[in-house]
């Protein structure tokens, strides 16, 4: 399967928001984490290691700000799949709905998040990663499957 991926794709699309620590539970002894399944590779996922969070936590429970993860992930795909062209198909910052935020607000956290993640992406590209595009998620807030409009992702 890996050989087909290395030689038979036009590009790889990547959604990237945050990073996690992952421990393999197939070949090492560990309890699988929440959401782990055979399709996910039976791994224990965590946003903490030795009690320290990976990156800065946000008010969205699954999202920690860790821009270095963008470079690491793109570099991994570059090395694993023979530098097939990549497109970052989703990247963005989520926050719980705040009635004080308006469409025209000075949203420092979102601006810093996107700027830092794009800088990390640029570092990977300067090291040779063939990245052909970047798309932010989303232009406007959308109705999330579980949370409705209580989490905001729009620019």
UniProtKB/TrEMBL annotation:
Protein family according to the UniProt entry: Belongs to the glycosyl hydrolase 1 family.
MF GO annotations: beta-glucosidase activity
Gene3D superfamilies tied to this protein: Glycosidases (3.20.20.80)
Active site: residue positions: 90
Domain of life: Eukaryota
Stretches that traverse the bilayer: none
InterPro entries given in the database record: GH (IPR017853), Glyco_hydro_1 (IPR001360), Glyco_hydro_1_AS (IPR018120)
Organism lineage string: Eukaryota, Viridiplantae, Streptophyta, Embryophyta, Tracheophyta
GO biological process: carbohydrate metabolic process
Descriptive protein name: Beta-glucosidase
């Amino acid at each position: 399967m890996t050989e087909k991926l290395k030689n038979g794709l036009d590009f790889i699309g990547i959604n990237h928001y945050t990073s996690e620590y992952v421990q393999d539970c197939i070949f090492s002894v560990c309890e699988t984490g929440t959401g782990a399944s055979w399709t996910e590779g039976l791994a224990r996922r965590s946003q903490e290691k030795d009690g320290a969070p990976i990156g800065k936590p946000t008010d969205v429970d699954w999202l920690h700000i860790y821009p270095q993860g963008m470079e690491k992930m793109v570099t991994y795909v570059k090395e694993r799949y023979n530098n097939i062209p990549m497109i970052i198909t989703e990247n963005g910052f989520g926050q719980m709905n705040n009635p004080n935020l308006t469409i025209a607000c000075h949203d420092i956290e979102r601006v810093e998040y996107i700027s830092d993640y794009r800088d990390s992406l640029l570092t990977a590209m300067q090291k040779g990663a063939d990245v052909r595009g970047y798309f932010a998620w989303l232009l406007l807030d959308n109705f999330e499957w579980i949370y409705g409009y209580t989490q905001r992702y729009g620019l």
